[in-house]
Amino acid sequence: MDIPVHRHEAGCGCYDRPAPPACTHRHYPPTPAPQNSGGGAAKWIGIGIGGSFLAVALSVSMVAFAIGAVSLTICVLVLRSVWDGFTHGKD
User: Fold this and answer.
1) How far apart are the first and last CA of the chain?
2) Distance between CA atoms of residues 74 and 66, nearest Å
3) Confidence band for 70, pLDDT divided at 50, 70 and 90
4) What is the rounded CA–CA span in Å between residue 66 and residue 72?
5) Which residues contact 12 (CB under 8 A, 6 or more apart)?
């Protein structure tokens, strides 16, 4: 099967065709691809350091709370003992 070879010569008619009609639908710009922010290791190191500081702060506050609770308990026991001695001394 022989396919004829087309040569663009004067009067071939290839360039005389009318332009295709303009499209009537709306064109939207292409959506940009999500960009990788990079610095994945630095982000996780920062999260680890921040989490460590948070854990230390939480443990220190829990120790302070425990010391306060023990001190309050001792104070209440001493005051109760003093009150018992004061009220029994009047009898």
Assistant:
1) 133
2) 12
3) very high
4) 10
5) 6
